[in-house]
Amino acid sequence: MDQKIIGANLRRIREAKGWTQSQVADLAGISRVAYRNIENCNSIPKVSTLQNIASGVGVKLQDLLVPVRTLKKVRFRASKKMNSRDNILIEIGRWLDDFNYLEKLLDDRKDYRFKALTRKLSSMDRGDDRAKYAAEQARRIIRLKENEPIRDIAGLLESCGIKVYPLILVSDGFFGLSVAKEDGGPAVIVNVWERISVERWIFSAAHELGHLLLHLDTYDIEESAEDEDQENEANVFASHFLMPEKAFKSEWDDTYGLSFVDRVLKVKRIFQVSYKTVLYRLSESMGNSIWGKFQSAYKQRSGKTLSIKDEPEALSPDKFQQSPEVLRSQEPDSLSPSHFVEDRLSRLVRKAIEKDEITMSRGAEILRFDLETMRDIVSSWV
Questions:
Q1: Looking at the predicted structure, is the pLDDT value of residue 323 above 70?
Q2: According to the 3-state scheme, what is the secondary structure of 100-131?
Q3: Among candidates 175, 181, 211, which has minimal Cα distance to 88?
Q4: How far apart are CA 152 and CA 326, in angstroms?
Q5: Fewer Cβ in 10 A, N or C end of the chain?
Q6: What is the pLDDT of residues 274-287, one digit of tens each?
Q7: What pLDDT sits at residue 85?
Q8: Residue 40 CB contacts under 8 Å (≥ 6 apart), including other chains
Q9: How many other β-carbons are positioned within 10 Å of the β-carbon of residue 57?
């Protein structure tokens, strides 16, 4: 056992949880002095002691023993300070290592389809026009029709050689991040916490794609503060990627006879975006007063004022991974969390298990399932 690795992992995990050495010692059933000596690399712990510590802080024993890979080419910006930042990056690094290991093992890689576009964009002046051009060209590369809504953004990104990781993080200040190819990507990570709307998941995925295309030169793990200009450019990209200009105008004009609120909500459903995305696009031509008008009209109709976190007519994330039969019974334009389920890694795991390249327990580890859940999944394969 490497004392330095164990000590560094313990300190990282403890600080991420905001605990003192005494609190961890109590959870592990050992004295504070004994724990301090282990974390400071002054003593060699017994395996049973490490098991007690791991159990106490809610991690696997392996998490204390294995050195972590440091990601460098990452765009990880958040509106609030995050104690869990290092742990998130470590988890993503391990996920990327597993993903790339399976791709190499099975000789099953996806080419990144936006290389040429990224190079072209790097020579253009930054701003809204560049973001709109990037969105138009990205859709053209993927061969989406001009008026075609994006129904499966996770699958779409994966088909273009971008790895997608739905990460659950209890935070309303973090929506997503992205990783450059040099660190095992390109990859998009989206926070799919249940209190964040599905529409926001989808927009975040498109937003991070925008960063990959427009701001690759800014990928630096040392940078944590948001850049307003870059965020705005990525927002413009996401808006136009999800709602092409001509298609948006056509659908908006088609709702001319409806009330203002109904018009916004119908267009929102068609393109599977947030009502805020629709209002943002309307504000480009109608001005910022459109936000106040919608709030007033919505309150008049519903008697409620929308908070910053509210999403009208959004489905609950507890319907994530519903059966196909349930999904088919819903309205065609309805949106559920099943619209944001990555499945390429799951396919690679199934292929590796069926070829006896990896064990079922290794497959469970890669997919972050317990073994019982993995057995149920394997038994359901047809």
A1: no
A2: HHHHHHHCCCCCCCCHHHHHHHHCCCCCHHHH
A3: 175
A4: 17
A5: C
A6: 999 999 999 988 99
A7: 79
A8: 7
A9: 19
Amino acid present at 66: V
In the block, which residue shows the tokens 């964009």? 121
Q: Which two tokens stand for residue 63?
A: 């998490």
pLDDT at 343: 75
172 to 44, 129, 134: CA distances (angstroms): 40, 30, 28
Q: What is the pLDDT of residue 9?
A: 85
What letters, b where the CB count within 10 A reaches 16 and e where it falls short, cover 317-334?
beebebeeeeeeeeeeee
| Mean per-residue pLDDT of the chain | 86
Residue 189 amino acid letter: I
Domains and CATH numbers, the chain: 3-66 (1.10.260.40), 75-81+89-302 (no CATH), 317-380 (no CATH)
| pLDDT tens figures, 123-170 | 999 999 999 999 999 999 999 988 888 888 888 999 999 999 998 888
> For every residue of the chain, which 3-state class applies, written as one string?
CCHHHHHHHHHHHHHHHCCCHHHHHHHHCCCHHHHHHHHCCCCCCCHHHHHHHHHHHCCCHHHHHCCCCCCCCEECCCCCCCCCHHHHHHHHHHHHHHHHHHHHHHCCCCCCCCHHHHHHHHCCCCCHHHHHHHHHHHHHHHCCCCCCCCCCHHHHHHHCCCEEEEECCCCCCCCEEEECHHHCCCEEEEECCCCCCHHHHHHHHHHHHHHHHHCHHHCCCCCCCCCHHHHHHHHHHHHHHHCCHHHHHHHHHHCCCCCHHHHHHHHHHHHCCCHHHHHHHHHHHHCCHHHHHHHHHHHHHHCCCCCCCCCCCCCCHHHCCCCHHHHHCCCCCCCCHHHCCCCHHHHHHHHHHHCCCCCHHHHHHHHCCCHHHHHHHHHHCC
Tokens read off for 249: 């105008």
Strand partners, 13: none
Residues in the chain: 382
